Amino acid sequence: MLPFTNIFRFQRTLQNPVRILIRNWHRDPIPVAWEKPRIGWTKLNFDGSCKGREGKASIGGVFRNHKAEFVLGYAESIGRTSSTIAEVAALRRGLELVVENGWNNVWLEGDAKSLVEIIVKGRQVKCAEMRRHVGDINLILPELGNCIVTHVYREGNRAADKMAQIGHQLKKPKIWWHIPPEDVLSIVHEDAEGVGFLLFFKQDGCFIHCPGIFLAG
User: Fold this and answer.
1) Alpha-carbon torsion 79, 85, 90, 93, what sign?
2) Which residue range or ranges hold the RNase H type-1 domain (predicted)?
3) Could you tell me which of 68, 102, 160, 165 has the fewest CB atoms within 10 Å of its CB?
4) What is the Rg, in whole angstroms, of the alpha carbon atoms belonging to the chain?
5) % of the chain exceeding 90 in pLDDT
6) Nearest alpha-carbon partner for 84 in 124, 120, 122, 57
7) pLDDT digits over 137-182, tens only?
8) Res. 211: pLDDT tops 60
9) Which residues contact residue 186 at a Cβ distance below 8 angstroms, ignoring those fewer than 6 apart?
10) Ordered alpha helix ranges (H), the chain
11) pLDDT digits over 181-201, tens only?
C-alpha cells in the first residue's frame, strides 16, 4: 500500500487530466521513423539494455543495406554493468563487426544521445571503463572510409532495442546472417515500409509516442 503522502501526490497530478494534456502538448509532434542508408552504405543501429541501475546488461545491433534488407544482427549478455556502459559496448561490438566484414561506408545510429555526443564532439568521460571503450572506438573510426554517427529517438531504434532484449536470454554471443530472429523480423519489415511514430513534447521534457502510426515519405 502506498504511503498517504504518495497517494495525495498522485491525486494532485491526475486532476483535470484533459486540461493538463492540452496545456503540455503545446508543440508540433515530431515524426520519428527509421531511415535507409544511401546506396553503397551499411547502417548499424545499436543499443544496450540494463535491468536495474547496475543490473544484468546486454547489447544488440542490426546492420541493414540501402534496400532496408537485414544483413547481420548480433546480441550478447555482458554481465552486470550500467546502462551507459552497455550502450558503448554495443557500439564497440558493432564496429568490430564492421572491420571484420570490411565495410567502409557506415552509418552508426543509437538512441543514447549522450554517447553520440561523446563520440561526435569528443567529450571527456570520467569512468575508466567508459574511457577504455571510447578509446577503442576512436581507434576504429579512422579506419573506415566514411562514417556518420547520429542519434535517433527510441521509436526509430526498435530493431536494435529488441536485439538487446534478446541478449539477456543468451548464454553466449550470437550472430544472425540475412535472416533476423522472429521477434525482430516484423520490426525490420515495418522499418522498410516506412512505418513511423509521432512524438509529442511535454513541458517536463519527456516524449510520448502517439498510438497512431504514419508512413514516412
Assistant:
1) negative
2) 45-165
3) 102
4) 19
5) 70
6) 57
7) 999 999 898 999 999 999 999 999 999 999 999 999 999 999 999 9
8) no
9) none
10) 4-14, 17-24, 83-101, 113-121, 128-140, 158-167, 182-193
11) 999 999 999 999 999 998 876
Q: What residue type is assigned to position 55 of the chain?
A: G
Cell 549522450 locates to 114
Least confident of 21-25, 51-55, 207-211: 21-25
- The distance from CA 133 to its chain's CA centroid, rounded to whole angstroms, is 17
**Which residue from 54, 126, 158, 44 is spatially nearest to 92, judged by alpha carbons?**
44
- Position 5 scores a pLDDT of 34
- The architecture in CATH of the region 37-183 reads 2-Layer Sandwich (3.30)
Taking the CB of residue 168, how many other CB atoms lie within 10 A of it?
Answer: 17
Closest CA to 58 of 182, 176, 166, 187: 166
How far is the C-alpha of 181 from the C-alpha of 18, rounded, in Å?
41
Task: Copy the grid coordinates of residue 114.
Answer: 549522450
Do residues 75 and 60 lie in contact, with contact meaning Cβ atoms separated by under 8 Å? yes
Domain ranges in the chain are 37-183
Can you give 41-102 as a three-state secondary structure string?
Answer: CEEEEEEEEEECCCCEEEEEEEEECCCCCEEEEEEEEEEECCHHHHHHHHHHHHHHHHHHHC
